[in-house]
Structure formats: structure tokens, C-alpha cells
Amino acid sequence: MRSFIVICGICCWGIAMISSCGTAVTGETNATALVQPDSVSYINIDTTLIPNGPFGESVKYGRELMLHTARYIGPDGSAGKFLGNKMNCTNCHQDAGTKAFSFNLMSSHDNYPQYRAREGKVLTLAERVNNCVMRPHNGKPLPLDSKEMVAFLSYFKWISTFVPKDKPFKGAKNLHLTFPDIAANPENGQALYQTNCARCHGPNGEGQWNADKSTYVYPPLWGNAAYQPGSSMHRVIKQAEWLKNNMPYDKVTPGKPFLSDKEAMDIAAFVNNDKIHSRPNPKNFDYPHIAEKAIDYDHGPFADTFSMAQHKFGPYQPIIDYWKAKGLKPVY
Ligand code: HEC
Ligand code: HEC
Hints:
Blueprint: H1 2-10, H2 15-23, H3 54-67, H4 69-73, H5 94-97, H6 108-111, E1 114-116, E2 121-123, H7 125-134, H8 147-160, H9 186-196, H10 198-201, E3 208-209, E4 216-218, H11 236-246, H12 261-271, H13 308-313, H14 317-325
Antiparallel strand pairs: 1-2, 3-4
Helix pairs in contact: 1-2, 3-8, 9-12, 11-12
The protein binds heme C (2 copies).
């Protein structure tokens, strides 16, 4: 009944609201009806619609945690010391997980529990949140019943009510790449990095602190304060897809990339080149079933005979073709 009241409380789009409130009496939150019929391209959320009351308070705290993660649960966090670094969720899931093509989290509440190849089992959304707490943030998991975890989940549930349930919306997934025939080139990436990225992220990828060093104005890209190698951001394809839409920060708008696909891949190869850049040590590398391993995950063993270097830097098309020929589904 609580969710019924909340959903009706946040929607103010007229007729659709009345019908959805009618159907929700069964206790189901039929959010499909809450979405404006013509709003399926880019989706904007309106935080003034967060409801009052205990659920709304939890949603607001969840959003606050997305934006100022380090302040609350960082190494000096006021609500507990969970993260191993002072990055914030929104550094990667921009606009608190609502920006198009930026590892958008607006469908996450609908998509879990979900089978995860990485762990070889079905995870809840709370467990998935903890994966990001442990990998990119190099931390220890939040208790599943903590106020902070409940707030993250409340926020994800609330942003999910803006999403159409029957068709995909623009920016739900990151932009895709056309793979070049040759491997990504970290040396070329280094030159591109110095031209396009170093002015904010620093010549040594160290980022730039804010005034009281509680977090970053520009987050670090490598070193012990950055994401660890077990993070998806450490995969060249994953990072390049994200860079294409989101960096350089001041030169892109959603759907209007600045970097070419090849440039994004070369830069991602440089940033993620472990031979020259240190990172925190991962606790484990997961993927109990190797035939489910993402093709750009650089830690063996592999379900094919391609080298570790080719898995990391490409060229990827031969790996994809090989997997398809074997009847396997290449993940990337
Ligand atoms: C360094 C970048 C980075 C940071 C910081 C980060 N994440 Fe993630 N997160 C990712 C990537 C990459 C994925 C995988 C996305 C994909 O595969 O499409 C992901 C996936 C997720 C997912 C699963 C989304 C889905 O629908 O499957 C959730 C939930 C999530 N992150 C929450 C968080 C939270 C909460 C925080 C802060 C505590 C956080 N992330 C911090 C990079 C990051
Ligand atoms: C004008 C400053 C600026 C430039 C130039 C810039 N970035 Fe960023 N970058 C940011 C900011 C700000 C964030 C955090 C975004 C947020 O919190 O909303 C960020 C976040 C990131 C992240 C995710 C968080 C992390 O630290 O892992 C990566 C990766 C990244 N940038 C890579 C790059 C690369 C590669 C380039 C060059 C192609 C680049 N950036 C250019 C400002 C910049």
C-alpha cells in the first residue's frame, strides 16, 4: 500500500496518473502508465516531484549518496567508512545515474534480480550496488539493511518510475563502437590523453582535489586512489563506449561525441594499461564460467586461444567471429 501512495504522489501528468492509480490498488506499481506517451527519447527526471514522507526522505538521501558518496561513506565518511577512495558514484553514472549514455541506472530497479556472469549467480540490485562499492570504489560492502543501501534502492526505484516499460529509451545503454581492424594503440592514446584529458585529470591521471580534499573536482583515472582492475571501467571497450559520449567533459553533449571510436579506444587502452599505471589490487577476478567472460576482460583463463593482449587491446572482431562460429555468445 505504501508504494501505491508513493507512486501516485509523484506523478502529476494528468489522465495517465488517474488510470495508473486505479490499477495500482492491487498493490502493483504499474509505472508504465506514469510515463508521458511522447517522452521515450531522452528522459528527464524532475526532483521536485520526490514525494514527502519517509519514502521520499530515503529517495532524497539516495540521490545525495549518488552525488556526494565520499562525504557519507568514503574513507572519512560521516555515515561509515566503506569506500576505499574519494570518488563519487556520479563520476561514472553522471547526473546521479540519469544522464543518457552514461551507465544510466534508470532501468536498474526493473532489471534485478538478474543472473550475473561475473559471479555466476543471480544477484539482487543491492548486491550489484555493493559490486561498485567494492570494485570502482575499492571498498567493503554496505550492510544490505543499512540506511544507505535502502536509500540507494529507494532512489533507483523512484527514478525507474520515469522510464517507459514497453520500449527502450534513448541513452539507456551507452553508445556503441565500430571496431577498427587493428588493436587499440596505447602510445597514440597517451598523446591524445595529453591533448584532451590532462588539463583536468592531470598529466599523471591523478585528478584534482576539491578545496578541503574531501573529494575531487576531477576524479583520478589511475593510481591507488582510482578504480581497481576488476571494474568494468578497466575494460577497453566499456570505457571507450563511455568516453565517446562523456569526455572531454566540456566538449560533449548526449549523443554528440567528440572523440572518434578509434581515438576513444586508444585513450582507454592508455588509461587502462597496467604496464605503466598502477591501481589497487583486486580482491578476486570472478567469472566462474569462462565461456561467459566479457571478451575485453583481460584476466585469463580464456575460452579461446587469443592472447591476453588481444583480449585487452583487440582487434576484437576476430574474437567475436570465433565465438559466434563456436555457437557461443560474445559479451562486450
Ligand atoms: C569508475 C566508474 C564507476 C563508479 C565510480 C561507480 N560505478 Fe556503478 N558501474 C560502473 C560500470 C562500468 C558499470 C557496468 C555498466 C555496464 O556494464 O553497462 C556499473 C554498474 C552499476 C550498476 C548496475 C546497473 C545495471 O542496471 O545493471 C549499479 C546499480 C551501479 N553501478 C551502482 C553504482 C553505485 C551506487 C555507485 C557508487 C557507490 C557506483 N555504481 C559507482 C562504473 C562505476
Ligand atoms: C574539462 C575537464 C575534463 C576533461 C577535459 C576530461 N574530463 Fe574526464 N571527467 C571530468 C569530470 C568533471 C568527471 C566527473 C563527472 C561527474 O562527476 O559528473 C570526469 C570523469 C571521468 C571518468 C570517470 C571517473 C574516473 O575517474 O574514473 C573517466 C574515466 C574520465 N573522466 C576520463 C577522461 C578522459 C579519458 C578524458 C580525455 C578524453 C577526459 N576525461 C577529459 C572532467 C574532465
